[in-house]
Design a protein that fits this description.
Length: 370
């Protein structure tokens, strides 16, 4: 019975994954998963999914085989009238079920669908530490590691085979010493590799709330993928108009200023952070910059110099996403291409015209496996 339930649950999980894969572009485009994010789980609305389950009657109200009744008499409450429902409708309702996926499962689906290569970390990635992983069952072990479900199943099997199992007392399954099963572990080498994501965003007046929502959605999926690739992942947030500063995540997505734009100010804060806290020999560093392309004309030279001399040599990947805005000039992307062309492998750029372009931008940013 337990094995059948486990098999049915596994099959249901596969159906859920298939539905998510089928609608992945929709979820990414509309950002439906953001706001449903827990520490390790994401709740996803999937239409027309149902899980078979037991439905119990009301305690103390009788039921099949209980109380008075005649042969052929209907069972249940089908003769009761509904209240407050109004006239019957002629169309089926839309059933939406909230199902949960772990961030690891979500990352696997994203990687499979976008054909993202596994990242080969640098730094301490080749120094493996031992980690105990509980992945097997033994007949002996400490009581603190007893596997109660497996013990119960073994006791149930024994009692059924001996003929001592009484269906009338289904809860009376008494394990003996030979039935006990214990979790066992195996030491698995785990690479000691840490990573940091440094997000930078222009919050000047030309970046509207719509552009910020695009950035937030794309950052959610970037986080999900990189977290699946690294044991430890930290994030830093930098906002700027004419001046830049480090902020927390909430401030990053909600701040809007009205000043001008100096991209070099963000690059300077980024370079200082790397120098102070993230030694490139120990950390895998990912920088993601989002802007509508506006920059004070004389500032391009300073920004490109900091990027070339201080940031690119230190990071695994530098990604510039230009979010189209009715107020932005888009000039900075042209300056990047003119300065680096295709010669710098660590630099990846993308143009994000609207929400539908997010998935292509993610694939372009993460598709190199750096």
């Amino acid at each position: 019975m337990f094995m059948k339930i486990d098999r049915d649950q596994h099959r249901f999980r596969e159906i859920v994954r298939g539905k998510v894969r089928e609608n992945l572009r929709k979820y990414i485009t509309h950002g439906e998963m953001i706001g449903r994010k827990g520490k390790e789980l994401v709740s996803i609305p999937l239409p027309q999914l149902d899980v078979p389950h037991f439905r119990y009657g009301q305690n103390g109200r009788g039921g099949v085989g209980q109380g008075e009744g005649e042969i052929g008499q209907p069972v249940g409450k089908g003769d009761q009238e509904g209240e407050g429902l109004g006239s019957a409708g002629g169309e089926p309702g839309e059933h939406v079920r909230e199902v949960e996926l772990t961030l690891a499962e979500l990352a696997q689906i994203l990687g499979d669908e976008l054909e993202l290569p596994r990242i080969q970390p640098r730094g301490k990635a080749n120094i493996a530490q031992e980690k105990a992983r509980y992945n097997s069952i033994r007949r002996v072990g400490p009581e603190t590691l007893r596997h109660f479900k497996r013990t119960y199943i073994e006791a149930l099997r024994r009692q059924v085979s001996e003929g001592s199992y009484d269906p009338a007392h289904r809860g009376r399954v008494i394990p003996i010493k030979e039935d006990r099963r214990y979790r066992s572990w195996q030491n698995i080498p785990v690479p000691d590799a840490n990573a940091v994501i440094i997000y930078m965003m222009d919050v000047s007046g030309s970046m509207t709330d719509e552009q910020k929502q695009i950035v937030r959605t794309e950052a959610f999926w970037i986080d999900t993928w990189l977290k699946s690739q690294y044991k430890g992942l930290e994030r830093r947030y930098i906002i700027h108009d004419a001046v830049a500063k480090e902020v927390d995540e909430s401030t990053f997505y909600t701040t809007r200023e009205s000043g001008g734009t100096r991209i070099s100010s963000a690059y300077k804060v980024c370079a200082d952070q790397i120098a102070a806290s993230f030694n490139p020999s120990d950390w895998n560093i990912y920088c993601f910059q989002f802007s509508d392309g506006d920059n004070w004309g004389e500032d391009n030279k300073s920004a490109l110099q900091i990027l070339r001399e201080s940031i690119l040599p230190a990071c695994n990947l530098f990604c510039y996403g230009q979010v189209e805005s009715p107020y932005g000039s888009g000039e900075y992307l042209r300056a990047l291409i003119a300065a680096f062309g295709d010669r710098e492998e660590k630099l990846v750029t993308s143009e994000i015209a609207d929400k539908s372009a997010i998935i292509d931008s993610i694939k372009k940013f993460l598709g190199k496996g750096k």
